[in-house]
Amino acid sequence: MTKAGKTVLIVDDEAPIREMIAVALEMAGYECLEAANVQEAHAQIIDRKPDMILLDWMLPGTSGVEFARRLKREDRTAELPIIMLTAKGEEDNKVQGLEAGADDYITKPFSPRELVARLKAVLRRSTPQGIEEPIEVSGLMLDPVCHRVTAHGDPIDIGPTEYRLLQFFMTHQERAYSRAQLLDQVWGGNVYVEERTVDVHIRRLRKALGESHEQLIQTVRGTGYRFSTKAS
Amino acid sequence: MTKAGKTVLIVDDEAPIREMIAVALEMAGYECLEAANVQEAHAQIIDRKPDMILLDWMLPGTSGVEFARRLKREDRTAELPIIMLTAKGEEDNKVQGLEAGADDYITKPFSPRELVARLKAVLRRSTPQGIEEPIEVSGLMLDPVCHRVTAHGDPIDIGPTEYRLLQFFMTHQERAYSRAQLLDQVWGGNVYVEERTVDVHIRRLRKALGESHEQLIQTVRGTGYRFSTKAS
DNA sequence: TCCTATTGTGACATTTGCGTGACGAGCCTT
DNA sequence: AAGGCTCGTCACGCAAATGTCACAATAGGA
Fold first, then answer.
1. Where are the alpha helices (DSSP H) in chain A?
2. Does residue A148 belong to the interface with chain B, where contact is any CB pair within 8 Å?
3. Which residue of A has its CA nearest to B191?
4. Is the pLDDT confidence value at B164 over 60?
5. Does the pLDDT of residue B69 top 80, yes or no?
């Protein structure tokens, strides 16, 4: 489920180090941004909206700690996970770093493997999914927490894509969506697939729902599809 | 928000430090026990049953690491969360500490705020529910007190990790968990392990459960796993 | 009614995700 | 030191899931 690889912003004043880290992370499937100082970092954050920040302790101008503190203070960036990088021998500052709002702390030199591992752990913690209530429509129930679909209590077996499709429909009832919109919302923006693929998945979903509920997914000829309890 | 304040055992040979920590924790609503050495600590654990342990790295006689390892080995105390305390400059030993079974690790000097924060985090993920009643699901029984699993009365032999995994599943039925979530909940947040490792342990657990019960652990394609009595 | 644009449907090759056995490292007991 | 145990990782293979196509079915306008 490699949605889109998460984006990591690397802030360090030494280009070779940035590069090294970037290579390691890209091999692990992350997208990397780089910044040599606080100004660049700030621009990147606003512009590219990374999912987390690798922040060197020592920076020209504003120090890393200060920058971290600033980010945590701003609403817009308060939730951004930060991992502080520090050279060995600066361990005194660990407490400061963590208090400033860093989510983890790693000492140079470090192995790429360790870096990636910590990164994963931090990302894992900081991305809780929204509160998800079961949705029920005329006997058809989708429970996001259990990741399960049932019709009058009986489990229905569908693939991941059909699940996402159904979830989208059930949270957006009564409205017609074009194939392009569905691809955007269910498949995710930057994927190239034929629009007719939507038809196939609609079919699979209808089949899985069975005669009792397939009517909920209505064809809007010339436009797309709609999920509705009312007959068309 | 939860029941009564948790009890924390502070193990350190320097009385002033114990005192300082105790004051900080009591202000945060915890009850504190103190021990200057391993013998005292052991007595306190048996006698007062603390909910977690703050363990200094350096101790007269048996070292903190060794003590931690011993606690993790004994069934009776294996689940007790431990936070190791260490003076600055001993960071090399961090890995040793964590591997010995410590759930977290904190370097002196530290701020009371940091200590309390880590303590909360560790407690949160180690004992969501305090007293441990046996859990039984369709003939499969897990008894936390005896640290034993039986299927229709016949004992099942599984390793510690599989035990924790099963315990987590049985206390969190029906809900689907991603591999990342399982790593967090079962392995502990500060451990860096491949996600696929979860698969392997799932397999080992299923195998141990046998045909009669392996169906309880269901694969949720593209998402993770789920423990449920209902068929998928 | 016929025609055409649009959608339904089954089949197919490819991709992806998971199950599985094996292996080596570390720890504990002997 | 040796042997057993548990653990994390890897590589391989299978099966589900996916995207695409070709063709059938359908609707709606002329």
1. 15-27, 38-48, 64-73, 94-100, 112-126, 160-171, 179-182, 196-209
2. yes
3. A121
4. yes
5. no
Q: Half-sphere exposure of residue A208, counting CA atoms within 13 Å on the CB side? A: 21
pLDDT at B198: 96
CA torsion through residues A198, A203, A209, A211, sign: positive
Give the total residue count for chain B: 232
pLDDT, position A75? 67
Residue-range domain boundaries for chain B: 7-126, 135-227
Query: Which nucleotide has the least CA–C1' distance to B222?
Result: C17
CATH fold, domain B135-227, is Arc Repressor Mutant, subunit A (1.10.10)
Nucleic chain D contacts, protein chain B, residues 156-185, CB cut-off 7 A: 157, 159-162
| Predicted pLDDT at A150 | 94
Tell me which residue of A50, A5, A43 sits closest to A25, measured CA to CA.
A5
A172-197 pLDDT, tens digit each: 999 999 999 999 999 987 788 999 99
Nearest chain B residue to A145 by CA distance is B175
The count of other CB atoms within 10 Å of the CB of residue B52 is 21
Separation CA B59–CA B67 (nearest Å): 10
- The structure tokens listed for B89 are 């400059």
Between the two ends of chain B, the Cα-to-Cα distance in Å is 36
Whether B60 sits with its Cβ under 7 A from any strand C atom: the answer reads: no
The pLDDT of residue B227 is above 80: yes
Q: What is d(CA A175, CA A179) in angstroms, rounded to the nearest whole number? A: 13
ipTM of the shown complex: 0.68
Cβ burial B7-27 (10 Å sphere, 16+ → b, else e): bbbbbbbeeeebeebbebbee
What mean pLDDT is reported for chain A? Answer: 82
Query: What local confidence, expressed as pLDDT, does residue B1 receive?
Result: 40
Confidence of residue B27 (pLDDT cuts 50, 70, 90): confident
Distance of CA B70 to the CA centre of its chain: 14
Selecting from 3.30.70.100, 3.40.50.2300, 3.40.630.30, 3.20.20.150, what CATH number does the domain A7-126 have?
3.40.50.2300
Side-chain half-sphere exposure of B196, counting CA atoms within 13 A? 0
Residue A1 pLDDT greater than 70, yes or no:
no
Using the Cβ of B190 and the Cβ atoms of chain A, whether some distance falls under 8 Å is answered with yes
C-alpha distances (whole Å) from A188 to each of A165, A191, B198 are 11, 7, 27
